[in-house]
Amino acid sequence: MKVLILNEGLEQQGHTEKRCAVSPSSVKRMVKRGMTVVMQQGAGVLSGYADTEFTEAGAMVVEDAGAALEETDALLCVNRPVEAVYARLKPSALVIGHIDPFFQQELVESLAAKKLTTLSVEMIPRSSRAQKMDALSSQASLAGYVMVMQAATHLPGILPMMMTPSGTIKPAKVYIIGAGVAGLQAIATAKRLGANVLAYDTRPVVAEQVESLGGKFLKIDLGETGQTKDGYAKELTEEQKQKQQDAQRDAIADSDIVITTAQLFGRRPPQLISKDTLALMRPGSVVVDMAATSGGNVEGSEAGKVVTVNGVTVIGTGNWSQAVAKDATDMYANNVYNLLDEFFDDESKQFNLNLEDEILAGCVITHNGQITNDMLKNAYQGA
User: Fold this and answer.
1) Strand partners, 137
2) What pLDDT, in 10s, does the model give residues 49-75?
3) N or C, which end of the chain has less CB nearby within 10 Å?
4) What does DSSP assign to residue 163?
5) CA-angle at 172, arms to 166 and 178, nearest 5°
6) Cβ(314)–Cβ(306) under 8 Å?
7) What is the pLDDT of residues 310-363, one digit of tens each?
8) For residues 224 and 10, what is the distance between their CA atoms, to the nearest angstrom?
9) What confidence tens digit (pLDDT) does each residue in 185-214 have?
């Protein structure tokens, strides 16, 4: 099985990708399993890994990966591949990466038309068996940490309480909306930095997790809410959204930092904070909108930018885990290796594409000229 990793830092998809789909450690394990690993020169440089580290691990590093594309059995990506890349792959080649399939219908249809087998890491089920492959959770955890650090950098104050000769500085108040993977990590990070942390989620079941990290849970009675079978919060009704915003207004106005992490799987994120609510916050306060690049939780946030709205700094830079690109690469590389390892056949030295397996049935979205995921097909048809 011939595996190819391109230098994605050379491809501009709205940002410069700093992560790599493999690490020297994962390459070493792949080679040991019998895979041939070919890498484009400089693929790991922006994540802190020199080409020599990959060659020492057993990879073949090439300056021009064009010739290798046509012989590749599996293309490992961080992002979705561009047409100039996937158009040169042989039929039945495996493409693994963050495809963003619900919002990339044209791309997914093109991948299917090329008869490529596409595995979208966002679609990996959140089951116990698939946990070691869950790249979405790995990167979200890092995002939670990075968002707190960025907020702390922009806040014109400190997070912990401090006793000084001139008096006592009170701890900053941090309010986190959403207690999924990213939110919980944000809570833990802000608490470690000494802030007073308040958090809210539409799923009352996560209150215990918030409190176990030292945060307080804001209770709002919205009636029937709950979560999906995959652990995501269910979409609220318009009446529930309004009730939620009204109840959170005081908490937001009283906070020095607000971090929103509300993202709905396969749908645009809900707007949680209006400009009017931002105007209630103290000048110099900071809001981090995790969903800015996919639609935004905060009115006035701009994808990829830090802006000021009604005196409040609103951070919507996105691509959060790239701020810690080395750890992000290590985590993603491990997730990808675990996926390959789970389905690698030692006799044939190939990826065993068993679409009856619950993991592959969920995350393989194109195969043999067809879009194979029913959830995606329904979304494309507007169901």
Assistant:
1) none
2) 999 999 999 999 999 998 899 999 999
3) C
4) E
5) 175
6) yes
7) 999 999 999 999 999 999 999 999 999 999 999 999 999 999 999 999 999 999
8) 47
9) 999 999 999 999 999 998 888 999 999 999
DSSP string, 173-184: EEEEE--SHHHH
Task: Give the Cα separation of 112 and 370 in Å (integer).
Answer: 5
Residues recorded for the chain: 383
Q: Quote the pLDDT of residue 230.
A: 57
From CA 72, how far away is CA 297, in angstroms rounded? 40
Query: Which among 43, 30, 40 has a CA at the least distance from the CA of 1?
Result: 30
| Residues with catalytic function | 126, 131, 134, 137, 232
Structure tokens at 362: 């969920």
Query: CA-to-CA distance for 16 and 49, rounded, in angstroms?
Result: 16
Percent of the chain surpassing pLDDT 90:
84
Q: Whose CA is closest to 240, among 223, 227, 252?
A: 223
Q: Cα 23 from chain centroid? A: 18
Residues 6+ apart with CB under 8 A from 221: none
Does pTM top 0.85 for this prediction? Answer: yes
How far apart are the C-alpha atoms of 84 and 66, rounded to whole Å? 10
Structure confidence at residue 353 (pLDDT) = 95
The Cα–Cα gap between 276 and 161 comes to: 30
Residue 267 has pLDDT above 90, yes or no: no
pLDDT reported for residue 232: 57
b/e burial code for range 235-253 (CB count within 10 A of at least 16 → b): ebeeebbebbbeebeebbb
Of the candidates 309, 274, 275, 272, the residue with the CA atom closest to the CA atom of residue 291: 272
- Give the span between the Cα atoms of 170 and 193, in whole angstroms: 13
CA gap 111, 34 in Å, rounded:
27
Question: Quick one: tokens of 311?
Answer: 């005196």
Q: How high is the pLDDT of residue 289?
A: 98
Task: Please tell me the distance from the alpha carbon of residue 54 to that of residue 56, in angstroms, as a whole number.
Answer: 5
Distance CA 266, CA 49 (A): 33
SS3 sequence, 208-230?
HHHHHCCCEECCCCCCCCCECCC
